[in-house]
Amino acid sequence: MSEVIGEARRRSARKRADVLAVACSVVAERGADATRFADVTAATGVGVSTLQYYFGTREDLLIAVFRFAAQSDFDAVGERLAGVADPWERLMAIASHLTGAIGSDTGWRLWVESWRWALRDPELRAEVLGDYTRWHVLLAEIITAGVSAGRFATDAVPMDVARQALALIDGLALPVALGDPQVTGAMAGDLLADALGRLTGLR
Predict the structure, then answer these.
(1) Domains, in order of start, for the chain
(2) CB-based burial label for 67 (10 Å; 0-12, 13-18, 19+)
(3) pLDDT confidence of 105, banded at 50, 70, 90?
(4) N or C: which end of the chain has fewer CB within 10 A?
(5) What pLDDT is recorded for position 127?
(6) Which PROSITE patterns match (predicted)?
(7) Environment class of 165 (CB within 10 Å of its CB; exposed 0-12, middle 13-18, buried 19+)
(8) Which of 199, 105, 90 lies closest to 153 in space, CA to CA?
(9) Using CA atoms, how far apart are residues 81 and 86, in angstroms rounded to an integer?
(10) Does the structure show a pLDDT above 80 at 90?
(11) What are the phi and psi torsion angles at 102 (to 5°)?
(12) Residues 6+ apart with CB under 8 A from 79
């Protein structure tokens, strides 16, 4: 009996994740404030009552979308880093993934929406700041390894360099997400590579 219950719960979790993946696109297109259960139902075919069962309120659904998108981004980067040993290549794998997220538009639209929502929601704000901490720690570890391997020549504190690196990524991402014709996705990627090379003292 417990195996049957366990399988049912796994199916429910998979279905919930499938709904969230589609809901990410809905929120990215419509914006968080304009997204309703009916919009997600139209995109997924999942009834409003089921969405309420999965998530509770509309606000809970939106927060779940933001958390799902953030975790998906981090997981995708982890997969890209698997088997990549060189610190510079690891750094550029992160940069290229995030620049690629600009190209798809959905990732950065959701990131911007989560910033806006976090300004009004202390719980989500803590989650978003926690996301930044995870990225900072990952980048600082790569920078430390790069200095030890002689790939990077910076003598700055690795966490400081990590914060600067992520600030560069955010700063180049925003105009692309807004559709600035003077900063294309490809240009942002090139500028980011140049800036990160200077920041780390690439050898």
Answers:
(1) 2-200 (1.10.357.10)
(2) middle
(3) confident
(4) N
(5) 96
(6) HTH_TETR_2 (PS50977)
(7) buried
(8) 199
(9) 10
(10) yes
(11) -65, -45
(12) none
